[in-house]
Specification:
The protein is an alpha+beta fold. Helix content is 34%, strand content 14%. It is globular. The relative contact order is 0.27.
Length: 65
């Protein structure tokens, strides 16, 4: 399962897990790390709430070249 926040996915607000619960827990950790990183580099933290958290069970393929 893949969980992500569409508005913040390009900054790293995405994760996965074998179950929806695990994917959401991993996403929470990813968002915590993202916020810490943004604070560390002095970049603003988005204040608008995301439209929604997306969860998908569609397999994704990543290819590294």
């Amino acid at each position: 399962m893949r969980a992500y926040i569409p508005e913040l996915e390009h900054k790293g607000a995405a994760s996965w897990g074998y179950t929806e619960k695990e994917a959401l827990e991993n996403l929470e950790n990813a968002v915590d790390l993202l916020v810490a990183h943004l604070l560390e580099i002095g970049e603003g933290i988005p204040t608008d709430p995301p439209s929604q958290i997306q969860v998908s069970d569609v397999p994704l393929v990543a290819i590294a070249i």
